[in-house]
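Listing S7. Sequence submitted for prediction.
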Amino acid sequence: MQKFTNLIALTLLVATAPAASAQPSHWFRGNTHTHTLQSDGDSPPDSVARWYRDHGYNFLFITDHEKLTDPAPLNARYGVPGKYLLIQGQEVTQRVVDSTHKDKIRQAHMNSLGASQLVLPQGKSGLASGITMTDGYATNIAAIHAAGGIPQLNHPNFRWSVRLTDLLALPDSILLEVMNAHTGVNNDGDGVSAPSTEALWDSLLTRGKIVFAIGDDDAHSFLPVNADAYELTRPGRSWIVVRADTLTATAILSGIRRGDFYASTGVMFKDLVTTAKEMRISIQPVGDARYRTEFIGWAGKVLGVVNGLEATYTIRGNEGYVRARVTDSNGGKALSQATFVRR
């Protein structure tokens, strides 16, 4: 599996995106988690594909439970060369029997992005006994890789199912839903025994795991009559923006594999540049919103704060890793990926 970065040997080693001069030149906004009537969504694939096209998205993965939706017919009807593209995906709905959990069952859902074939969960109807969560993830990740897909670990706090110990054996370059826009997946944790998904990400990064933060809708509700129903899982609330040369499935999947993207619930970047010496962000302003950038390192420590549309952090070499969290005055947020720093 390709890692996010190369190690650059200077006075320190930095795992980072490709050098600025070698980076692709375009940003493409997309969603990696969407449901239709083919599983538990409320609208057919045509309606879903049309919604994202009409709302300015560049790419979409339809990820129904145990169902692959062929993107070719949808691309023929709704695709726009260079502007909008559908890519094949699936949600692998793994559940694991665990007598220690309140539900006696733990949820280990994963998305398979860009795979050539269906990946079925373990056990009868996706309910496996006699295995651990770690076992379930390992087997399904291997199957997704074998099918040519990218594994995405979904909503870890859904039904309070996933613990840090379940994830320590994950391979590098896995995707983790940090900003899932579903209204019932407990992104913020409980403040007691379950950390927020962002804090869980920091715990993995602190242990040296190369994990990429995803933002997505996990949308199920597209009916116009429910447009104002915030409690439903409506589309357009969270996404990723991938850097790529062209809008093709190959280029978008390549950008996701190498971690060349950021996650957002509203904040958009003009540019994001990471080198061995610094992380630099330029923000696209919206209205009169104000912006605050926090640069974060080992164990989730805030390393520095910058207000305004331009933010730069100079890498010292003792941070462990550096990532950025940008928040606007209306509550929107964006997360860069982490750059690993080692002396």
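Caption to Listing S7: primary sequence and predicted structure tokens for the chain studied. The chain has two domains: 1-23+267-343, 24-259. The radius of gyration is 19 Å.
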